Structures are given as structure tokens and as C-alpha cells.
């Protein structure tokens, strides 16, 4: 696959599939040159020696690389999976990890990589392509929305809560039970699939994956409150990759040290200790979070605290935070997962932006405006965030 990129000597960019034996060393250089952040703060991802670790658990996946003069200058990853969207079964392609080294940016290499990936999506019968970025990432939005005709359709929030190594006390009136895989899949299909978009058709495969620790349901022990319940599943990302904050504002460093000092010597204050995020750490990702009933909020919080206690006891302290991605809007309802899920605002972000593009023209969709309105009208439905996309 050959594309054109603008430069005085009219050089060619070659797009091909990633070859682990040939490309791993150069790919590491590309990743380091594209670390997320700015001069003050950046987030480094350690893939534990597997550059395609974040897509390897999906049904079909690919990694493409871009070469100029036999030098690796960019890459992109993608996967295709079956989901429920607008109550229909469709195949969606997920665009992930678009990277172009700084000296080679603004020459069309990113566009070529995305278009070649979209061609691969269509060859695998994908109906839509979608991606996630930050709402203040002007370069990314300029490429996908401004140039490639993607549409912004959701602004979910990523909620992060530090794991308390001392453990948390759970409410005595709440019971928590672990479900078997078949029971969990049945529960999700009965109560969740009709109320969410992007619900994976292969939910059983996800629940059976070695990275999926299990599914838990919370309920009130008093039978009179049985109409309220909550459910979630847990994915252990620490077995796939690690994160590390390379730099941070001085205020964050000071707060970390103060919280840890006070929590160690004055534990009766109940102050949550901040984990050391400057060394590589993993996290538990909560997916399939759903609750019903008038007293559901307390149940969601109890489940999250239960998972935090699990993380504190597991993996020798590798999992230092618990993460969940939820809809950023309450849609006019008093109930919002953002209000129920315990999280630290300084560690969380509410600027995640999901964009989507049709790869096939719907019979009843005659224009891009019709397509946009279709997703705007579906905002009453929640998102099911696939842990394999994290």
C-alpha cells in the first residue's frame, strides 16, 4: 500500500502490516515520541513488550505502520467486532493508537493511515468506524471530524479512584454476590442490552476472557428493597499494560505525600492514601456498570468499593486505581452514574469524545445530517464500554 505525502522531493509513504520481529524496536521509538501530554505532564504506556496488547483480545484486529525512506514514522491499530447499535446487530471498527512522529506531522500521513484502516474495516464487513479522543485535541478532531467526516456523538467521563490499601468498610445492609459467566451473560442480555448502545454480541467471550476477573451483583438484604440492584464486571488491565505519569504539577506531588503521611500516622481520620503513580501501575476497569431501582446509587457505590478492596489485596499492589467510563450527561435524570461512582476529580477527566462514521450507507439515511440526528436522538441510551477498547 503506497500513499502520497507532501514534501519538496515528493517522497512516498508506504503503509504495511506491522511485523513484530522487524518493527518492534522502531515502534518503541515512535511510541516514546508520541507520549500523551505536554511540557508539564505526560502519561507513558508500557505495553510489556507487546505493541498490539490493547487489541489482541478482540475478534479481528490489525496494526498498520507507515514508512518513509524505510524508516518507521507512524502507526495505527484497529479492531472489528459485532455490537448492538440502535437495537440492530452491526459490525463496528474501532480506530486506536494513531501515531505519527512529530517531524512527519501535517503532511497527510495520519489521513493515509486512517483511510487504509477504514479499507480494512470494510473488507471485514464493518458498518461503522469509531474512535475516541479528548475534546481539546484540536489536531485529532480536525483530522477525524473536519477532514474524514466523523461525527461527535458522545462525551463520556473517565472516572478514576485510588485504591485504598487499608480497605473500605462496606454497608452492612447490602449483599454482594459473584455471578457465574452464564448467569452474568443472561443478566446483561435481559436487563442491559435494550438500554445501551455498543453492547457486544460476543459478551460471553468477554466474560470468559482470562483478563475478566468476574461479575458481581449488589442487592439489599432486606427483601422489601429487592427491586433495587446493581451489576458490574471487572477487567484486569495490569496483565496487558502499565501506565506511569512522567511529570505532574507540584501540587499533585505535595498532595500525594501529605495524604500518605497523614493516612499512615493518623489512620482514624479515614483519609484515602494516593498511590504512587510515578512508577508503573495497572488498574481494574469496571465495565457493564448498570443499576435499577430507587435505591440503586448506594448499591453502585458499594460495588465499586468492593472492587477497590479486591484490588488492594490482589496482584501485590500492581492495581493502584479503579477506572470506569460512563456517560457524561445525566440526560435530565436525577440518577447519574457520575454521582454514584466514587472518584477523585483531580485524577478523572470529563473530556473524552467519541466520534463515529458510517462505512455503509443506510437505506433510510440519505444525508450526513440524517446520520447525525440518528445518534443525537439516541442519547437517552447508555454506552456499554467494551474493556477490550481500553
From TrEMBL:
<protein>
    <recommendedName>
        <fullName>N-acetyltransferase domain-containing protein</fullName>
    </recommendedName>
</protein>
<dbReference type="Pfam" id="PF00583">
    <property type="entry name" value="Acetyltransf_1"/>
</dbReference>
<feature type="domain" description="N-acetyltransferase">
    <location>
        <begin position="13"/>
        <end position="171"/>
    </location>
</feature>
<dbReference type="InterPro" id="IPR000182">
    <property type="entry name" value="GNAT_dom"/>
</dbReference>
<dbReference type="InterPro" id="IPR016181">
    <property type="entry name" value="Acyl_CoA_acyltransferase"/>
</dbReference>
<dbReference type="InterPro" id="IPR052810">
    <property type="entry name" value="Plant_NAT"/>
</dbReference>
Amino acid at each position: 500500500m503506497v500513499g502520497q505525502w507532501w514534501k519538496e522531493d515528493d517522497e512516498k509513504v508506504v503503509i504495511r502490516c506491522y511485523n513484530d520481529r522487524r518493527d518492534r524496536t522502531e515502534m518503541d521509538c515512535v511510541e516514546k515520541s508520541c507520549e500523551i501530554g505536554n511540557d508539564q505532564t505526560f502519561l507513558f504506556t508500557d505495553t510489556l513488550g507487546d505493541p498490539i496488547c490493547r487489541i489482541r483480545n478482540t475478534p479481528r484486529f490489525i496494526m498498520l505502520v507507515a514508512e518513509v525512506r524505510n524508516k518507521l514514522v507512524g502507526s495505527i491499530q484497529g479492531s472489528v467486532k459485532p455490537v448492538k447499535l440502535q437495537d440492530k446487530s452491526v459490525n463496528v471498527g474501532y480506530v486506536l493508537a494513531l501515531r505519527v512522529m512529530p517531524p512527519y506531522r501535517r503532511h497527510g500521513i495520519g489521513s493515509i493511515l486512517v483511510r487504509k484502516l477504514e479499507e480494512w474495516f470494510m473488507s471485514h464487513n464493518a458498518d461503522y468506524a469509531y474512535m475516541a479522543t479528548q475534546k481539546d485535541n484540536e489536531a485529532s478532531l480536525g483530522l477525524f471530524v473536519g477532514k474524514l467526516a466523523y461525527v461527535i456523538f458522545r462525551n463520556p467521563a473517565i472516572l478514576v479512584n485510588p485504591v485504598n490499601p487499608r480497605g473500605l468498610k462496606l454497608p452492612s445492609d447490602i449483599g454482594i454476590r459473584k455471578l457465574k459467566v452464564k448467569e452474568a451473560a443472561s443478566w446483561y442480555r435481559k436487563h442491559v442490552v435494550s438500554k445501551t448502545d455498543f453492547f457486544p454480541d460476543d459478551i460471553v467471550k468477554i466474560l470468559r476472557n482470562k483478563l475478566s476477573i468476574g461479575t458481581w451483583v449488589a442487592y439489599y438484604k432486606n427483601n422489601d428493597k429487592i427491586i433495587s440492584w446493581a451489576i458490574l464486571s471487572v477487567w484486569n488491565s495490569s496483565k496487558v499494560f502499565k501506565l506511569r505519569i512522567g511529570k505532574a504539577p507540584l501540587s499533585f506531588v505535595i498532595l500525594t505525600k501529605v495524604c500518605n503521611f497523614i493516612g499512615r500516622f493518623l489512620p482514624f481520620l479515614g483519609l484515602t492514601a494516593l498511590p504512587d503513580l510515578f512508577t508503573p501501575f495497572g488498574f481494574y476497569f469496571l465495565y457493564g456498570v448498570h443499576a435499577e431501582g430507587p435505591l440503586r446509587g448506594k448499591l453502585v457505590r458499594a460495588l465499586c468499593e468492593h472492587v477497590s478492596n479486591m484490588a488492594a489485596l490482589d496482584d501485590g499492589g500492581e492495581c493502584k486505581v479503579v477506572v470506569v467510563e460512563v456517560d457524561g450527561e445525566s440526560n435530565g435524570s436525577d440518577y447519574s452514574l457520575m454521582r454514584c461512582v466514587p472518584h477523585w476529580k483531580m485524577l478523572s477527566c470529563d473530556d473524552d469524545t467519541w466520534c463515529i462514521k458510517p462505512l455503509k450507507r443506510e437505506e433510510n439515511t440519505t444525508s450526513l445530517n440524517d446520520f447525525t440526528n440518528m445518534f443525537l436522538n439516541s442519547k437517552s441510551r447508555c454506552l456499554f464500554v467494551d474493556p477490550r477498547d481500553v
